[in-house]
Every structure is written in C-alpha cells, then in structure tokens.
Design brief:
With 409 residues, the protein is of the alpha+beta class. It contains 10 helices and 10 strands. The strands form 2 sheets. Strands 2-1-4-9-6-7 form a 6-stranded antiparallel sheet, with no helix packed on it. It has a 4-stranded antiparallel sheet with strand order 3-10-5-8.
C-alpha cells in the first residue's frame, strides 16, 4: 500500500500542466465587449489590454476579443508562405471565432465545444486553426470568444511541421491522465469487492464521476457518443463538474463517518449537499451561470469545513488526523490559488504550476487517491493491531484459565 501511495504521488507531479508554444507570437492583447455585438471593424480600434501566459477572466458574460500579432520571421525571403497552426484551448470553450486577413479580405472560421462533433474533434483536446503567413510584416489575427462558465483560455502558435510532435505530447498527457483515473477506479472497485464498506463505495462513485469529467474536458466524449449533439456534450461537461464537487462533499463525510462528529459539522455537510442538489436542478433549468457560481462556493468552502470536522472529531486517531489535516490544507491551498488565478484578470502570470487551471486534466483523482489510500492503509494497520491485541488478550485469558484449572486440580 505504501508503494502505491508513493507511485500516485510521483505520478501526479509527472503530469505537467499544458503549455503552449509562443515563439511566433509577438504580442497578445484582449478586449471585453460588454454588448457582445461589436463587429470586427469596430473592435480593431478598441482599447486592448496586454496579457501574457493564459488569460483568466472569471465569469465573464461579455464577448472577449483577443488580438495576436504573429511574427513573419519564418517566411522565406522569396515570399514563400509559412504554414503555422494556431491553438486555442481548453476544449470546453463554447465558441471561438477566428478572423484572419486573406487576399485582402477578412475571413472567419468558427470552432468551439458547441461546434465539435465526432467528425471534427481534435485528439489533443484543443481547437486548432491552420494559417498561412505570406506577409513580410507581422500579421494580426483576431479571436472572438464566448463562454457561459468561467473563462480561462490559452493560445499558442507553432510551425505546421512542429504540430504533430506537439499534438503527440498533449495526447500522451491526456492518455496518461485517463489511464490513471481509470486505474484508480479499478483499484477502488477491487478494494470494494474485498471489503464492502460505505467509504469504498463512495470513493468508487467519486472516481467514476472524475473519469467522466476528464473525458468531457478532453473532448473524448464526442468520440464515445458520436450521435450526441454539441449542446448535449457541453451540458454533460457542466453536469460532471457539478457532480464531481457533490461527490467530493460525500467523500469528505464518508471519511469521517466512523468517528464521533459534532452535530454542527453534520448540518453543514447536509447544507452543502442541498446546495449541490439545487445546482444540478438549476443546470437542467438552464440557469448555468448561477449554478456554476454556487458550486464554486461549495468547492471553496468544503476544505475549510472538512478541517473543522477533522479537529472536532473526538475519537480520530492521531495519524489519521494528521494525514487528513495535511491533505485538506494542501487541497485548500490549491483551491484558493486556483480560484484566484482563474476568476481574476491574472493573465500576466506564467502558465505553469499545479493550479494554473481549475479544470487542469490533473484533476483526475490522483491527489484524492493519495489521501484516500493513505487513510485505508492506516485503518488496515489499526485493524491488524486491534486483531493482534484481541488475540493476545485471548491468549492471556487462556493462560489464566489454565493456571486456575491447575490450582483447582
């Protein structure tokens, strides 16, 4: 069990956050259109703001324009065209319109989760546009984005010759993330077959939702459900995100259920579950933004409330209390920093680190699995120790009985 925990810990940090090649991007700027009605000609003279790395604007109801100035350094001196690929992510962005000047005219291409089907989904979980740079001067392209949830986006441009290698790297990262998520689900089911406990059942439910969530993030669901419309696939992505938070609440409760808990903690967990249920109802009613805002509050409050439950439980063993406290503190730090980075205009921050995206594909349950299997290991050791103590007690009682019998004889 210890080797398993060590492997999961190392595997988590081997899954690097997705980065985007930007050697051909000279400048990245953005502009928020509150009316969501401005045309390209009107936006071209708008007051754009410079950003670097990824762009996080939180729950942004406005249309967001991004202007990229691309280098022409790769164009040959004889005027030969340079083939490049513009990558825009993540996959769940609902609508992306690209405007590029071709032959003296502006042309428009549209991508996004609401336009993704099994026929055009990219295996790297990105929205890719092929461009041809012919000008000897830097080229400007415009992106118009609309998204119902919290908007976090990254863009990158690379030579078409380098694109297969970059795609293979991203596909490998997605594959590793999915394999780890499925492996954790398999481990949970195996342990549940051997020991049919409520905690293991809840963990299996949690990890199943995680597998579905990761699949929806990468666009894999479009291949698994080829007949599903883009609207249905987008709705499933939102639903799996909400269910993931709901199952995290249930898992937190299941971890502490065997111990003596304060009534206030239990009422708090019940309240969080009621909010989760209401969020699911709001999603089906079409109230997407209120539901996502509310579930993000639950996502942030839960680790704090779980810490309260850990330290008010009266019969929690010291080792378990320490492990649960450490896990909750790390989880809380990731949540707080991740929410701040994604819900504020923090585009100047570098696109690296474990918390740059709330929807990073490393949210595949590995971090939770480390704590969960650690608790399982401690409980198994405690159970073995208890059995050994009971056996020793029975042995002592048997010796005492024999001694008493000898005295009687």
């Amino acid at each position: 069990m210890f080797r398993l925990i060590l492997f999961l810990s190392l595997a988590f940090w081997q899954l690097t956050a997705f980065s985007f090649a930007k050697p051909l991007v000279l400048e990245s700027v953005y502009f928020k259109d509150p009316s969501s009605a401005l045309t390209l000609e009107q936006v071209r003279t708008a007051p754009f703001q410079v950003y670097q790395g990824s762009l996080g604007l939180g729950f942004e109801p406005s249309a967001v324009w991004v202007r990229l100035t691309l280098s022409s350094a790769t164009a040959a001196p004889d005027g030969r065209a340079a083939e490049v690929v513009l990558q825009v992510g993540p996959h769940h962005l609902e609508r992306i319109d690209l405007f590029v000047r071709t032959g003296g005219q502006w042309t428009q291409k549209t991508r996004g989760a609401l336009f993704t089907t099994a026929a055009n989904v990219s295996p790297d979980g990105m929205h890719n546009f092929e461009l041809t740079l012919t000008s000897a001067e830097p080229t400007q392209v415009f992106l118009r984005m609309e998204h119902t949830g919290f908007l976090v986006t990254q863009t990158g441009v690379l030579l078409k010759a380098d694109f297969p290698q970059a795609m293979a790297k991203r596909v490998r990262a997605i594959t590793v993330s999915m394999v780890l998520a499925l492996s954790l689900l398999g481990l949970g089911l195996t342990f549940y077959i051997l020991d049919r406990s409520l905690l293991l059942l809840v963990y299996c439910g949690f990890q199943l939702v995680v597998v579905l969530f990761v699949a929806s993030l990468s666009g894999f669901l479009a291949l698994v459900l080829p007949s599903a419309s883009p609207e249905v696939l987008t709705g499933l992505n939102r639903l799996f995100f909400v269910l993931r938070v709901c199952m995290t609440v249930v898992l937190a409760w299941a971890l502490l259920k065997p111990h003596k808990l304060k009534p206030l903690y239990l009422r708090g967990i019940q309240l969080l579950l009621v909010v989760c249920a209401l969020n699911v109802v709001m999603l089906f009613m079409g109230e997407v933004r209120p539901a996502l805002r509310s579930i993000l509050v639950v996502f942030t409050v839960l680790p704090l409330w779980h810490l309260y439950g850990i330290w008010t439980a009266t019969d929690l063993p010291v080792q378990q209390r320490r492990l649960l406290t450490l896990g909750s503190v790390v989880y809380l730090a990731l949540v707080l920093v991740g929410v701040w980075l994604n819900l504020t205009e923090a585009g100047w921050l570098p696109g690296v680190g474990p918390v740059k995206q709330v929807l990073d594909l490393r949210l595949n349950g590995v971090a939770v699995g480390v704590v969960f299997f650690g608790i399982t290991m401690l409980e198994h050791r405690a159970q073995k120790k208890k059995v050994a103590q009971e056996v020793e007690l029975l042995r002592e009682q048997a010796l005492q009985s024999r001694a008493q019998q000898a005295e009687l004889d």
